[in-house]
Amino acid sequence: MFINSFFNKTSDIPDIPILSKYTFDGIIDLPENIYIHDFKSKNNFQNNKHSFSIGKYNEKRYNMYKGKLFEKTKRFIHMGIDIGAPIGTVIKSFYDGEIFLFKNNNLKLDYGYTIITKHSFNNQNLYALYGHLSKSSILNKKIGQKICSGETIAFVGNKEENGGWPPHVHFQLSLLEPKECDLPGVVSERHHKRALKIFPDPRIILGKIY
Fold first, then answer.
1. Which residues does residue 88 pair with via DSSP β-bridges, in sequence order?
2. pTM of this prediction?
3. Residue 210 maps to a domain
4. Can you give the CATH number for the domain in which 74 is found?
5. Which of 66, 73, 134, 179 could cross-link with 157 by S-S, CB 3.0 to 4.6 Å?
6. What's the CA gap between 84 and 81, in Å, rounded?
7. Which pLDDT value is given to residue 56?
């Protein structure tokens, strides 16, 4: 299974690159007063009433993830940041890099259309997954295609194309190279400690958005 094969890798996990000298673009232009979700409680993202919102990193979402994609493997700890935004909202690259992989992860409540980008800092690679995108986001994309900081690379998808979720982008970083266009966006208690090392807090890129 993909989840187990990912966490059973024997390769060493690189340290987080030193990023203090770099300046990053936001991946979505956000309003000043943005709603911050607390999904540890009974609140459910499917009932989101806010045009723009934030779902936290490393949050234990006990009541959100239903169905065989999650419940069979007891996954409920969120390893990215969710940014809720209207359908079609522009999503930008946070830094210069390249398109590493793209795909439609089309299982129910999966990522839907997905892009992973690759970035290099002091000869160390950092990978970023953008999930729940529109179909148009992968049109005319090529693996290895160069992208620039602030460049439009995707758009927020609707429920029919983003895996069945309210419109948002799931943004997740990885220090290990993904072997396919996917990352475990939520993990179990069993894999949590290792996941924290592999998937650093996206706020090292996004800044203090909450």
1. none
2. 0.93
3. no
4. 2.70.70.10
5. 134
6. 10
7. 96
